[in-house]
Amino acid sequence: MPFFCTRPHRFFYCFSTAVATVLVLAGGTARAQVKPGSPPVYPPPAPLATDTLLDNQVGQAQKFAVPSVVGMGPSKGVVANIESLGNFRITTRLQDEGDRETSTTVTKNRRAFIKGYIPVWNRPHLKVILGFNYDREEFQFREPGNAVFYRDLEDKGLKTLGTQLAVIRPVDEVHWYLARVKAELNGDYTSSELSVKDYLRTSGEFIYGWKRSPYFSWGVGAQLSYTFGRQSVYPVILYNRTFNPRWGVEALFPARVSLRRNINPKTLLYGGYTVDGANYNIKLREPLGELRTLIVREREVKFRLRAEREIYDFLWFGLEGGYRYNAGFSAFNEDNYRRSLLGILSGGRTRAVDNTLGGAPYLSVEVFLVPPRKMLNKLAR
């Protein structure tokens, strides 16, 4: 020990200094032996603003399967839409007049609707959604005096007031099912002369599906609806798939198929087709022979291009255009029509008015509200 440490008052100072030096060297040696983890761990990828998964779900294991996939547009809460068609030709044959034909031009066929969806129950294992809708359609003719049917339909407000209940039930990480029931009042009714049994239309669907990954979900099922004009049951195939960050498909075949293009998180483009139908009960201003009420059935196919763009966090704008092919627009004797549905009539002609419509271009404008991202992030936490 050095001479200066042999003195008593220097001993404790030298001892403490030696201990500190050993600890520093030992600590440096220990740090030098620590090796970085291999492979390095990176945080999960951040989702697009339009992804249906929340922030804390992207890159994680699926706990409950749902029909939607990453890349689809945001869920719509309230939707307001107006649609207008170009002029098109209509040719009419009346059964009680020996199939005599008359024709004119439809100068106005305009539609508007408002829809809303309320999440009554929103849990990972069960989602219950209550919806409502109000639709209105109007016609105007260049020469309505050509036929009684045109005069009866001119400027008549054809309305649809409906409500629906949808249930999405994830079974596990892969399986899910969707059930929906809907009731609507369709026709030219007013509040003072509304008869529910005359105007009520019911529909429903059930789909069982598989979620193969966050980017691919599909299912099979059946629908009872008026998509093809009259109430009927037909099979459906749901197919939602995102192939890459730019392209995807959203389909409920045969009713609609759309190819999706994600331009950026705030802009989406769609192209495809939809099959639509309507079924109205109308009261005639002028009787057709002995008929005072008719059931009008519409069937159409739209070939469309659509763009959706975020205006603000919770507000989006939609613009759609294309060509509408009118597959059918006929009117039926209400009594015979009901009996044929019940199977009392087999065959036989129940059509009172047979119309042939030309196709026309159409344009629609839409504004809709979506859940704000701040609220989704809050729910995720």
**How many strands?**
16
Tell me which CATH architecture applies here. Beta Barrel
The residue fraction in helices comes out at 10-25%
Overall geometry comes to: globular
The largest pleated sheet is described as: 16 strands, antiparallel
N→C terminal distance: 64 Å
**Which spans have pLDDT < 50 for at least 5 consecutive residues?**
6-16, 18-62, 340-349
Mean pLDDT: 81
CATH C-level category: Mainly Beta
**Radius of gyration of CA atoms, rounded to a whole number:** 32 Å
Might you state the CATH topology name? Porin
Roughly what fraction of the amino acids lie in strands?
over 45%
Task: Compute the number of structural domains.
Answer: 1
Number of helices: 5
Pfam family, one: DUF6268
Protein name: DUF6268 domain-containing protein
Keywords: Signal
InterPro entries: DUF6268
Lay out the secondary structure:
Layout (H helix, E strand, L loop, with lengths): L7 H26 L44 E8 L2 E7 L5 E24 L2 E16 L6 H6 L4 E13 L4 E13 L8 H4 E14 L2 E10 L6 E11 L4 E7 L2 E9 L2 E22 L2 E22 L2 E19 H8 L9 E7 L2 E10 L3 H8 L1
Pfam families: DUF6268 (PF19783)
InterPro entries: DUF6268
Protein name: DUF6268 domain-containing protein
Provide a descriptive summary of the structure in words:
The structure is a single chain. The chain has 381 residues and is mainly beta. It has one domain (78-380): Porin. Helix content is 14%, strand content 56%. The protein is built from 5 helices and 16 strands. It has helices at residues 8-33, 148-153, 196-199, 334-341, 373-380; strands spanning 78-85, 88-94, 100-123, 126-141, 158-170, 175-187, 200-213, 216-225, 232-242, 247-253, 256-264, 267-288, 291-312, 315-333, 351-357, 360-369. The protein has a 16-stranded antiparallel sheet that branches. A hairpin with a 5-residue loop joins strand 2 (88-94) and strand 3. The longest helix has 26 residues, at 8-33. The two termini are 64 Å apart. The model is unreliable at 6-16, 18-62 and 340-349 (pLDDT under 50).
